[in-house]
């Protein structure tokens, strides 16, 4: 009998103007959640802007079977950093 793996959910997260150091800090906190994968995408803008983050987006991936508790921890971490920097995260589900 073949065991099927759960589907993976991927989200693209952006907080405009957030520094590389803070993106790394958020990623480190999120990586403490067992089963969550975090990837930092570099900025892809062709023009240099000193006020633009070096990170274009943070991609998170987790199984669709993630518990409500783990999903709440993700939300709590993102809310903390969003509040701290006066913005809300842009969250987009990827296919």
Pick out its properties:
alpha+beta, globular, 95 residues, single chain
Textual characterization of the structure:
- This protein is of the alpha+beta class and 95 residues long.
- The protein has one domain (18-89).
- Helix content is 29%, strand content 28%.
- It contains two helices and four strands.
- It is globular and about 50 Å long.
What is the rounded Rg?
Answer: 15 Å
- With strands numbered from the N-terminus, the spatial order across the biggest sheet is 2-3-1-4
The number of distinct structural domains comes to 1
Largest sheet: 4 strands, antiparallel
Low-confidence stretches: none
Question: Strand percentage, roughly?
Answer: 25-35%
What percent of residues adopt helix (DSSP H or I)?
Answer: 25-40%
Shape: globular
Record field, number of beta strands: 4
Topology:
Layout: E1 8-14, H1 20-30, E2 37-42, E3 55-63, H2 68-84, E4 90-94
Antiparallel strand pairs: 1-3, 1-4, 2-3
Task: Give a quick precis of the structure.
With 95 residues, the protein is of the alpha+beta class. The chain has two helices and four strands.
């Amino acid at each position: 009998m073949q065991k099927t793996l759960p589907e993976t959910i991927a989200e693209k997260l952006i907080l405009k103007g957030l520094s590389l150091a803070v993106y790394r800090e958020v990623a480190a906190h999120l990586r403490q959640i067992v089963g969550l994968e975090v990837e930092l995408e570099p900025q892809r803008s062709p023009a240099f802007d000193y006020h633009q983050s070096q990170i274009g987006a943070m991609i998170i991936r987790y199984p669709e079977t993630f518990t409500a508790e783990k999903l709440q921890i993700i939300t709590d971490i993102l809310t903390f950093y969003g509040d701290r920097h006066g913005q809300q995260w842009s969250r987009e589900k990827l296919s």
